[in-house]
Design a protein that fits this description.
By secondary structure, this protein is an alpha+beta fold. It has a single domain, classed as Phosphatase 2c, domain 1, CATH 3.60.40.10. The chain has five helices and ten strands, in the order βββααββββββαααβ. It has a five-stranded antiparallel beta sheet with strand order 1-10-9-6-7. A hairpin with a 4-residue loop joins strand 2 and strand 3. Helix 4 packs antiparallel against helix 5. The longest helix is centred in the middle third of the chain and has 16 residues. The two termini are about 15 Å apart.
Amino acid sequence: MGLISAAIRVVPATADQDRALRIAHAECDIIVLADGAGGMTGGREAAERVLRHDFRAATGPTECAAELSRLDQQIHDDDACGETTSVVVIVREEKVFGASIGDSGAWALTSDAIVDLTQHQRRKPLLGSGAAEATAFGPFSFNDRILVASDGLLKYAPRDLLRRIGLGSDLELAADALVAAARLPGGTLQDDVALVLLEPQRSR
């Protein structure tokens, strides 16, 4: 089931607050990624709340941003939750759209460039603050691979290296190599890494 193929990696470094999920429905595929804010309690719980939210009602980018705004207030009202980034990517009828908050990102990878779908997002306030402003993107034709990732990957590896690795022929091997690109020479990560690498489902 689903319109896409996806490889998911969630690799904790210290905080274990990154989360990523792909949900396949008959009418759409939904990718959700969240990076719970460090330095405060409840970041992990806030990220998990994002993954549990049902985004199927979002039939376009505006509705997707509205869902994140509603979720912002719900998380804010939950004393067990802190704050988190969030990227939601929805593939529906061969189009991709979504919304985001924070410094996690979604990039379309082409043979010669990166198109940052989340380039206009607001980094703060974060989801769960009660004052977050989600930024919508799309819809775009879903032709290329898309990398959805937390800053634990995007911040610690060169953009062009991530593009070249992300376009590797095998989706699963490319996802493993992306995690490796964020590692220090000794093999450790400087931050948790969550990523989803997706592409249109190939006919068999």
